[in-house]
Design goal:
The chain is α+β, with helices and mostly antiparallel strands. The protein has two helices and seven strands.
């Protein structure tokens, strides 16, 4: 971990995750994006953005005490969306 001012930062945060679900028969085109980051006060936050493709969507944020809890939550959200038919299209790891 590095110290930046009074905040500790870590490079072990999960990569941002982007998923889509498309179903032409039901006129469905949705996206779901999850990212883990620290806010200005150093609190670990998960931001979830979701909605119809082509719109800004809605944003929900959750605070977590440690990286392990945040990673477990991201994995649980990802698994739930994949069970509902979402496909992972992009993460920071696949861009490299």
């Amino acid at each position: 971990m590095e110290n930046v001012g009074d905040l500790e930062t870590s490079e072990s945060l999960p990569a941002p995750l982007y998923m889509e679900r498309r179903d032409g028969a039901r006129n469905m085109a949705r996206f779901y994006r999850v990212s883990v980051e620290r806010d200005l006060y150093g609190t670990l936050m998960i931001s979830r953005c979701f909605g119809r493709i082509g719109t800004r969507g809605r944003v929900l944020s959750e605070a977590f005490a440690c990286e392990e809890e945040a990673s477990l939550r991201v994995a649980a959200l990802s698994n739930a969306k994949r069970r509902r038919g979402y496909v992972i299209l992009n993460t920071a790891e696949t861009q490299a």
